[in-house]
Amino acid sequence: MIGTLIAAARLCSALTSREVPADLACAATLPMVAQRAYPAELLAAIAVGESRLQPGAINAVSGAWGVGQCIGRRPRVLTAWAGVACQVRKLDGAADYCGDRGYTFDGDPACTLAGYASGPRGVEAYLLGERWPRRRALRVLRRAAQIRARVERWQAVRAVRQSETAGCPIAATGVQEVTCG
């Protein structure tokens, strides 16, 4: 549990920007890190593009809701947890659809992302070699790589030498301001 909280804090720090305030970023990162099906930075990259991590976002035209802009039955209370759970279900459905056509998420995440964004139409267009689904998927993958790099940079900047934290029970957190003893 502590590792999940630390990972969520690191991801929150990487996501906070002018476009995404810290309160939205931090509220959304814990459910993204807690689920284990997909990389949290991928879910974050999708959510930043879809809703700027706003759990209460509702598209007036399509009715899509939540951080991942899911279509379908909407819960009474829109929370980041509900949005991420729907996001994972949507990715699972897209991955299954691509898997039926011989593409796996691990081998080709662009197919799954095309299905996430545009459903079966996006997957078929992707498989036919049309550019738009591939460009959209690559944009999400680039954003995920940028988020991952910011998390790694955050970890490297805040690394604490082991000798400075000997005997400190929370030394693994990498927080330099902590003093023990």
Quickly give the structural class: mainly alpha
Tell me the helix content. Answer: 55-70%
Low confidence ranges: 165-181
* Secondary structure tally, helices: 6
Rg: 18 Å
Principal-axis shape equals: globular
Strand content: under 5%
Mean pLDDT: 86
Number of strands: 0
Secondary-structure element sequence? HHHHHH
Largest sheet, if any? none
Alpha-carbon distance between the termini?
25 Å
Please characterize this protein's 3D structure.
The protein has 181 residues and is an all-alpha fold. The protein is 58% helix and 0% strand. It has helices at 2-15, 22-34, 40-51, 80-99, 109-127, 131-157. Helix 2 (22-34) crosses helix 3 and helix 4 (80-99) crosses helix 5 (109-127). The radius of gyration is 18 Å and the shape is globular. The two termini are 25 Å apart.
List keywords for this structure.
about 0% strand, 6 helices, single chain, disordered C terminus, about 60% helix, mainly alpha, about 180 residues
Compile the SSE list and pairings.
Layout: H1 2-15, H2 22-34, H3 40-51, H4 80-99, H5 109-127, H6 131-157
Helix pairs in contact: 1-2, 1-6, 2-3, 2-4, 3-6, 4-5, 5-6
Short description:
The chain has helices at 2-15, 22-34, 40-51, 80-99, 109-127, 131-157. It has 181 residues and is mainly α.
